[in-house]
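Researcher: Re-running this chain for the archive, since the previous output was lost when a drive failed. Same request as before.
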Amino acid sequence: MPVNDTFHDEETLTLTIVAEFAASPQRVWDIYADPRQLEQIWGPPTYSATVVDHSLEPGGRVTYFMTSPEGERFCGLWEVTAVDRFTRLEFRDYFADEDFTIVESMPGSSCVYTFVATETGTRATYESVFDSVEGLRTVIEMGVVEGSTGAINQIDDLLVG
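Model: Regenerated structure tokens:
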């Protein structure tokens, strides 16, 4: 499995997931840059994802929804803040309603995804910094660690496919 470490720190309000892939940083990056590939790995394995808008540039937005096995839809959006093509992506991540309006009662986070070349491929670090310890605790209780780990572990199948 690609994910080899997950940890959270209430002092720094961070949730971090580290994964290793047997592919170049550019190939891993391409999954996030292509909305059709992103749909295949975004969200837990039993949830389907649909990317509605995809503008992966500073000031851009990515809007999407995930559909549970029971048919329930969960919407979200990214507000992209920085892009260093193939190596780094930064965005604000939010829960959203069906119109892709931010749900203020749910925690948002500042995310930094980095992709670094290694001897065997790519080391990806996914870091989310929350606005409060309550926000961090909320997403952990919701199962975000397990869901994100399951989502990231789907990347291997896409890389070989």
